[in-house]
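User: Okay, second chain of the day. Same drill as before: sequence in, structure tokens out.
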Amino acid sequence: MSLLTGLLGTLSSCMSHQGMPTGELISVEYTENGTRAGNKYYGSVERQENGTVILKAMKQNYDSIIEKKVDAEVLTHIQNVIKEHKMYKYKEKYRPILQVLDGYSWCFEAKFSDGQKIYSSGFNARPHDDGCEIIQAYMIEQVTADSH
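Assistant: Same drill. Structure tokens below.
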């Protein structure tokens, strides 16, 4: 009985959603895949060991990945989107009720300086919120902005 209680406790802690991580966002990645080979969209922002922040993203679907140095404010902005849209409450996996043999998939991951992570993915299903789409649009905006 105690083994079953421990197992259920562990399972429920894995399934329960934590609050917003308290550390600073150090990296974020969002990908989408469609029926064509390769990523439909790829975007990531990561703080390097030396403190610089590198953005790698596509300007549009199925495009090549562009890499550029950006201000640390980019991570702050994305962290605010995560908080405002409560993306830390996203389920780990989204799946449709009925079987779908063709379609799309997506994956979102955010890592924080306190060691916490947010991970969510889906196959032909998404959260009702548009946080991932907002982050994708922001990455596209940043990668297309002129560097001065």
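The mean pLDDT is 87.

User: Thanks, on to the next one.
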